[in-house]
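Hi C.,

You asked whether I'd gotten around to modeling the 235-residue construct. I have! Everything is below, sequence then structure, no commentary in between.
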Amino acid sequence: MYIKDNIEAVKQRMQQALEKAGRSPQDVRLIAVSKTKPIEDIRTAAACGMTDFGENYVQEIEGKYPLMPEGCRIHMIGHLQTNKVRKVIDKVCMIHSVDSLHLAEAISKEAVKRDLSMDILLEVNIGDEPSKFGFAPSELISKALAISGLPGINIKGLMTSAPITEDPETNRPYFRHMKELLIELRSRLSEAGIPEDKLPTELSMGMTGDYIPAIEEGATMIRVGTAIFGPRNYK
């Protein structure tokens, strides 16, 4: 039952970080990243109380969706091509990785077609890494204002994957910057007429290697895979 033990260990570390930051356990949602893992592992985690699972690949979502335990949700956290939107929009509770106006428009079009309301996060390339997707911090607000006018989608907040590092403390400034961007985004959307109860509140940031400083700096969702399910098999 290593998955059960791993979940308990992650939750214990989460609790310590929350207490240090003066935050409540209800402030942060743990998303178990189950990409490349079999449905049996998801069922084991669900039996341990997990309800939110992160997937990166459309093909995996299509295969796992009909087999998901009752009450469990899938979050799309990987790069999503516009021509694949139709395959996942009715299977996921949230798309974390909206990284362009073009993708947002495709999601909006498909949501309207299906009479859905899709929750999204805007992905930010906070470390300005060429290998990663996401809006540059400098363009985020203008793109968000354009996206906020699209029907069928709800901007719930921001998402980032900070640089891979051996020392998680080096990512603390990135997480702090993300919190500042969310505050600015809320202000600008409010000025644009978005009502208070519709303003974005979510910060999806922090993974196995750096979720502790992410929580301490304001994350509302952390995406943890290896620390729960063990190393991934990409074969």
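If it helps when you're writing up: The chain has one domain: 2-228.

Thanks,
B.
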